[in-house]
Design a protein that fits this description.
about 475 residues, mainly alpha, 23 helices, about 70% helix
Length: about 475
């Protein structure tokens, strides 16, 4: 969780006007809410071992709020609080989208038409679409990031098979072992003066004492709702954040399916997926109430971690959620972990996101790849899923704003944010093509992999579904799944 939990506030808080103390508090709050949301999702949502945390999808509308020009204030901390309250208001309103779509069953009716064929581009680009956070992150401090990447591959893929008695140890603890080794190595480089006098950019990426988080973090602090003050509301900002919420909803649908696959659960019945989306909406609401500066969605890196460790236990994720809450309250401890250099996290992403992407490709086994209809849908949706966001992102980098550039900043975000997401573009396009192109022929139904998923359409059609997805405390009696 430390990747998104540290990187997002580190990028946003200084732009808001906050210093190290505010940054430490936001990181604590984000970690606390992530632990809370993970517990809610694993107990009452999909019941899968899915971690719910911060999402990069919400960064663009938050930056838009920062740049709106409405928050000029000579006192930077006062400016920070005003922007944070505006972000809270936008998140609170935007959360209603997922809450309504999920708990009303509307999203269930949408995903009923999802097939293995249309799921492939969606899930694949949920993982592969985050490639810019992988090796580019490693290269920011290659002497720290590259050893982490090499060691992680050696521990997880080679040592686990070379040293038979330690097979499960190297499989399951590869991340902990390698991060500890490289973190100590990075600390030695920092203390030894390897980065003294180096450019500021290098010091930020490489040093273990770079962030000032440890000095800024209080010893004990429990995050609480409205800690920055009462939220403020703006209709345009709420609409922009609502579109980001919809993009996160589509991406999370792919991530949930990947988690189910790597946790060896049966494919999720649409009603369970819809229930999970509803609780994810509650998660975004909590993010708004507590003031994390960021919305919540399924953690893609933790979906990949299931594949790396082969541990798909709900209980393990619930215990780790408890640790998140524990470390967020004991601020100094959390800040120590947050001192892990970002290139180490980038190296982890290279494996985690790759596993999620290939989890999507694994659904091809249920499709007929000799069908030219299937080839067109797969090729066209994946290609445009990579190409369209590349255009939008390149345009933004060069011009400083997206291709849609009107006087309404909120309208610009509503168009630019979804088309900057690889998984969203590919998933929506594949879903549309698969459900509109001559699909009534029985042979085509088989080619799409539809018969394989049909047997899991209903909660009661497979006895194993109850084992994976039924609610605890006999709550299914009051909230039956369909």
């Amino acid at each position: 969780m430390l990747g998104t939990t540290v990187i997002i506030p580190t990028a946003l808080v200084p732009q808001m006007g906050g210093g190290n103390e505010e940054k430490a508090k936001v990181i604590q709050t984000l970690l606390f809410v992530a632990g809370l949301n993970t517990l809610l999702q694993s107990f009452f949502g999909t019941r899968l071992p899915a971690v719910i945390g911060g999402s990069y999808t919400f960064v663009a509308p938050t930056i838009s709020i920062i740049l709106s020009g409405r928050w000029e204030d000579p006192d930077p901390v006062s400016r920070f609080k005003k922007i944070m309250r505006a972000t809270q208001g936008a998140l609170i309103v935007a959360s209603t989208l997922q809450i309504v779509l999920g708990f009303s069953g509307l999203w269930r009716n949408v995903v009923r038409f999802l097939t293995p064929l249309s799921a492939v581009p969606l899930i694949s680009l949920v993982g592969f679409g985050l490639y810019e956070f992988g090796f580019p992150g490693v290269a920011k401090c290659v002497e720290v990031g590259l050893p982490q990447l090499v060691l992680l591959v050696i521990f997880s893929q080679y040592l686990a098979h070379l040293i038979k008695p330690g097979k499960n140890i190297f499989d399951r603890f590869a991340v902990l072992f390698t991060v500890a080794i490289v973190w100590i190595y990075a600390y030695i480089l920092t203390v030894g003066g390897a980065y003294n006098g180096k450019p500021q950019k290098t010091q930020i990426s490489c040093r273990t004492d770079r962030a000032g988080l440890i000095s800024g973090a209080p010893w004990i602090r429990v995050p609480y709702p409205f800690q920055w003050g009462a939220p403020s509301f703006d209709a345009g900002e709420a609409f922009a954040m609502m579109m980001a919420t919809f993009v996160a909803l589509v991406e999370s649908t792919g991530a949930f399916i990947a988690v189910a696959r790597y946790a060896s659960a049966t494919p999720m019945p649409p009603s369970i997926l819809s229930r999970g989306v509803g609780w994810q909406g509650i998660g975004i609401l909590l993010s708004g109430l507590f003031g994390t500066g960021n919305g919540s969605s399924v953690s893609v890196e933790n979906a990949g971690l299931l594949a790396l460790t082969r541990v798909g236990s709900r209980r393990v994720v619930q215990i780790s959620a408890g640790f998140m809450i524990f470390f967020s309250i004991l601020g100094k401890f959390g800040a120590v972990f947050a001192s892990i250099p970002a290139p180490i996290v980038g190296a982890l992403y290279c494996l985690f996101f790759a596993y999620v992407g290939v989890g999507g490709l694994s659904f091809l086994q249920f499709c007929n790849l000799n069908s030219f209809r299937n080839k067109f849908i797969l090729g066209f949706s994946i290609f445009l899923g990579l190409s369209v966001p590349q255009y939008f992102n390149e345009y933004t980098v060069i011009a400083g704003y997206g291709p849609v550039h009107t006087h309404g900043r909120w309208f610009n975000d509503m168009v630019n944010v979804p088309f900057s997401s690889e998984a969203f573009v590919a998933g929506i396009l594949a879903y549309f093509l698969d459900n509109t192109m001559h699909k009534k022929d029985n042979a085509i139904k088989k080619d799409r992999g539809k018969p394989w998923w049909n047997k899991f359409k209903s909660f009661k059609s497979d006895t194993r579904s109850e084992e994976f997805y039924s609610l605890p405390f006999n709550l299914n009696k009051y909230f039956p799944s369909v």
